[in-house]
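Changelog note: in this version the structure field was regenerated for every chain. One regenerated record is shown below for reference.
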Amino acid sequence: MSGQILSHVDEGVLRVVISHPPRFNAMDRFMWRCLRETFTELRGHGDILAVVVEGEGGHFCAGGDISEYPEFRFDEAALRSFHEEDVWPALQALIDCDLPVVAAITGNCMGAGVEIASCCDMRLASECARFGAPIARLGFPMAPREAQLVARAVGELTAREMLLSAAVLGAAEMKARGFLNRVVPAQDLIAELDHLLLAMRSLSPMAARLNKQALRALSAGQPMADLVATAYGYAGERDHREGVMAFLEKRPAAFT
């Protein structure tokens, strides 16, 4: 039975739920396509301020759905199609999202789970979360684009440890290595997430969008001169004026 990518809007936040409980939310091909569609459809939705990515039933994502691998992994063209036409476009859609994206991680976060979390802007985790990419046990490497993504997010040494020794690391260790923003007891994760979202709701959506665009361009190696040439076009925007004037007038800002 195929898994699902569920989504619903809650007080201006899109909750994206990785749902495949019988397999600890392992991603199958259908789910990768749904994930891409979910984030692609976000463009133009001005009523959504942020996105939360989470798993159903106590786990974030245990990796790929191994049960379907014999259908395509043993043919080079089919394998390339899976990674380049299903997996990477979904991850790229997350990366290209101009809204703040927060990962709320519990339980297993392995392989595909680490890749999805690596696309998010902030990562909160429960103390029981476990991270790794032990795919060498299955006899194959991580795809090149995915390996680059993970290495940038977790750090090259951690990526090498995960891929070359099948290391599985706890949440406290991953926070110490800079992958996680916060680690809390499992019972406090929802409250911690709500606290973060409350703070984000008071901020300028325009500022968030421009910050994400700039950080994405810098990560892609875009020349600084190109960024500087267009960096100040927001000068006359309403949110800019509203934020500054609200501060001077000692009142809460009413951003668009």
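Spot check on this record: The first strand starts at residue 4 and ends at 10. Residues 76-95 form the longest helix (20 residues).
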